[in-house]
Amino acid sequence: MYTGQMVFSQLMDFLPKHEFNQCVRRYQGNYRVRKFSCLDQFLCMVFAQLTYRESLRDTETCLRAVQSKLYHVGIRGRVSRSTLADAK
User: Fold this and answer.
1) pLDDT at 21 over 90
2) Which of 79, 10, 11 is nearest to 44 (CA)?
3) What are phi and psi of 30, to 5 degrees?
4) CA-based nearest residue to 13, from 52, 35, 34, 43
5) C-alpha count within 13 angstroms, C-beta hemisphere, residue 35
6) Which of 2, 20, 32, 52 is most buried per CB count within 10 Å?
């Protein structure tokens, strides 16, 4: 069994997280956020773009299919269609 990083996780290593967090702090992106952070939303949207998802329902279905691996790619919050739709 392969124990290295997933391809998506390797791609996201190129994201300068310090700069991302700096922008989130500057624009108060995580203000009043309980579980689904800006980083979680960003990772979900990048995943949807890279896998050519066409709708929130499609994105949610695909992410739920690999739910046991989401923590390993960096998505910490629970992914549901309403959460993705409400995230601003």
Assistant:
1) yes
2) 79
3) -100, 20
4) 43
5) 8
6) 20
